[in-house]
C-alpha cells in the first residue's frame, strides 16, 4: 500500500555532502516510521537512521552520528537524509524503509577521490 522512491545519490569526494530523499506514496497514513539502511558490496545491510512520524524522534547508528541528519516535509510525504563529512566507508546503496517492512529500490552513494 506504500511505495517508496529514493533519490539524490551520486559521486562525492571525501568530506563532501549529499542529501538523499525518500518520497512516499500510496497509503501514507499508515506510516509510523521511516528509516534508512545501507548496503556496501559484500556486506550485510545495516541500519543508518530512523524517524518516528508521530513525534519526530530520530535515531542514528554510531557510525554516522554527528554527520547524518534526518528530516521530513510532511506536506510532500518526503523524508531526507542529510549526509555531511562523507567518508569512503559511507559508500553503499542507501535504501529507504517504511515501518521496518517496505523497501525502496535504493540509490547509490559513492564517496571517492
Relevant terms:
single chain, 113 residues, mainly beta, 7-stranded mixed beta sheet, 4-stranded antiparallel beta sheet, 11 strands, globular
List the helices and strands and how they pair.
Layout: E1 2-7, E2 10-12, E3 18-26, E4 33-39, E5 46-52, E6 58-60, E7 68-73, E8 78-83, E9 92-98, E10 102-103, E11 107-111
Parallel strand pairs: 2-11
Antiparallel strand pairs: 1-3, 3-8, 4-5, 4-9, 5-6, 7-8, 9-10, 9-11
* DSSP summary: helix tally: 0
- N/C terminus separation: 40 Å
| Dominant shape | globular
In quaternary terms, these chains amount to single chain
What structural category do the secondary elements indicate? mainly beta
DSSP summary, beta strand count? 11
Overall helicity: under 10%
Give me the Rg, rounded: 13 Å
- The overall average pLDDT, rounded, is 97
- Note poorly predicted spans: none
Strand content: over 45%
H and E order:
EEEEEEEEEEE
In this structure, how is the largest beta sheet organized? Answer: 7 strands, mixed
Structure description:
The protein is mostly beta strands and 113 residues long. It is built from no helices and eleven strands. It has strands at residues 2-7, 10-12, 18-26, 33-39, 46-52, 58-60, 68-73, 78-83, 92-98, 102-103, 107-111. The strands form two sheets. Strands 2, 4, 5, 6, 9, 10 and 11 form a seven-stranded mixed beta sheet that branches. A hairpin with a 3-residue loop joins strand 9 and strand 10 (102-103). The N and C termini lie far apart (40 Å). The mean pLDDT is 97.
Amino acid at each position: 500500500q506504500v511505495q517508496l522512491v529514493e533519490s539524490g545519490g551520486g559521486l562525492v569526494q571525501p568530506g563532501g555532502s549529499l542529501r538523499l530523499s525518500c518520497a512516499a506514496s500510496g497509503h501514507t497514513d499508515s506510516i509510523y516510521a521511516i528509516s534508512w539502511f545501507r548496503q556496501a558490496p559484500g556486506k550485510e545491510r545495516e541500519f543508518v537512521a530512523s524517524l518516528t512520524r508521530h513525534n519526530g524522534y530520530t535515531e542514528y547508528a554510531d557510525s554516522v552520528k554527528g554527520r547524518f541528519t534526518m528530516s521530513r516535509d510532511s506536506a510532500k510525504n518526503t523524508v531526507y537524509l542529510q549526509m555531511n563529512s562523507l567518508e569512503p566507508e559511507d559508500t553503499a546503496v542507501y535504501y529507504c524503509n517504511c515501518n521496518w517492512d517496505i523497501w525502496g529500490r535504493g540509490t547509490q552513494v559513492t564517496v571517492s577521490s
